[in-house]
């Protein structure tokens, strides 16, 4: 009897995981173990300017190349993409390309149902630019040299305080630069945020959803501010499903890993049945 996660051809669906901004493929450790235990081949990519590709500047073309390379490493057969935030937007854009491989059978897009052409994403890009400027000012004022891999900035977008001392518009009290030689995961500076959002701002995720020819599952944490246009995305999909996970925020795969994994299993089964 064929498994619910098995393609009609007999091959199990392989999975490519795509991370969000200022993280890396390491965020998918739990999900990689989950799908591999179920018999799926899986790989987590590093996008340009992140992880193993930290020395490259982020571009959407570079992100597409990373996905192309990841798919090429997997056995022949069906492939699904699972992306969070920037990774979700990238996955939707990749799926919308006319040249996208016929092996693609579905996309699970998490934390990415606010159209990049809208005001929220542009606002976040401008705030990120201000934080990057503030961080560089702090480095110049203090004379401290901080390696990019340990340069960290903390920002709470909904509670950003009024501007005070930093040129470019950021409150220096919201910026922290902390050297940490024990950090295991490369943490890009806020420059990559402005690069990524600049590339996203010229693209409409709604248009990508309309162009995608495969089933799309949108998965959001109930507390995620980026879910404001989830109904628009769902309505635009030819074949779409929406799951909202209670109690979770933007990083839904890490905040509710067990629930996310159950949803992921359902999505992979759905992709296989519809292939």
TrEMBL record:
The keyword Transferase belongs to this UniProt entry's keyword annotation: no
Ranges of residues in domain AB hydrolase-1: 15-261
Superkingdom classification of source: Bacteria
GO molecular function: hydrolase activity
Protein name: Alpha/beta fold hydrolase
InterPro entries: AB_hydrolase_1, AB_hydrolase_fold, Carboxylesterase_BioH, Epox_hydrolase-like
Organism: Promicromonospora aerolata
The entry's keywords: Hydrolase
Pfam families: Abhydrolase_6
This protein's record includes keyword Hydrolase: yes
């Amino acid at each position: 009897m064929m498994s619910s996660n098995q393609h009609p051809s007999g091959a199990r669906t392989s999975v490519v995981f795509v991370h969000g901004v200022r993280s890396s493929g390491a965020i998918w450790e739990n999900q990689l173990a989950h799908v591999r235990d179920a018999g799926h081949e899986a790989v987590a990519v590093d996008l340009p300017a992140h992880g193993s590709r930290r020395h490259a500047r982020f571009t959407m073309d570079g992100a597409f190349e990373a996905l192309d390379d990841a798919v090429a490493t997997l056995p022949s057969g069906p492939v699904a993409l699972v992306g969070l935030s920037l990774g979700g937007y990238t996955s939707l854009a990749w799926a919308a390309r006319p040249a996208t491989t016929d092996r693609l059978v579905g996309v699970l897009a998490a934390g990415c149902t606010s159209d990049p052409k809208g005001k929220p994403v542009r606002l976040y890009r401008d705030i990120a630019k201000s934080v990057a400027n503030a961080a560089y000012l702090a480095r110049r004022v203090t004379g401290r040299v901080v390696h990019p891999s340990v340069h960290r900035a903390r920002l709470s977008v909904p509670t950003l305080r009024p501007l005070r001392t930093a040129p470019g518009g950021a409150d220096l009290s919201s910026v922290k630069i902390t050297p940490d030689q024990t950090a295991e995961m490369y943490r890009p500076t806020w420059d990559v945020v402005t690069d990524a959002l600049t590339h996203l701002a010229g693209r409409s995720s709604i248009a990508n959803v309309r162009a995608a020819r495969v089933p799309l599952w949108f998965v959001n944490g109930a507390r995620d501010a980026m879910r404001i246009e989830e109904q628009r995305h769902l309505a635009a999909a030819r074949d779409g499903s929406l799951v909202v996970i209670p109690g979770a925020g933007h990083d839904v795969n890490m905040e509710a890993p067990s629930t996310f994994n159950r949803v992921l299993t359902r999505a992979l089964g759905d992709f296989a049945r519809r292939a």
